[in-house]
Here is the input.
Amino acid sequence: MHGRVRGPAVEATAEFVPHDQWPQALAALRRAYGLRFTLGHVTSRLVHRLLRRPGDRHELIRIRPA
Here is the structure.
């Protein structure tokens, strides 16, 4: 997602979200960003499929304050 920075910078750690937790993570992103997220995600998946790129090029990350 893109957006404007709000507030001061903080130390944080990031990790990949395991594939079995993707449904919950995607639901949280849809709740937070609504139609904007859904349209971006669907468009990205469609372009990936139309270009017939092998494999899955998508990942989700979880960012937590340190």
User: Anything to note?
Assistant: The chain has a mean pLDDT of 87. The chain is about 40% helix and 15% strand.
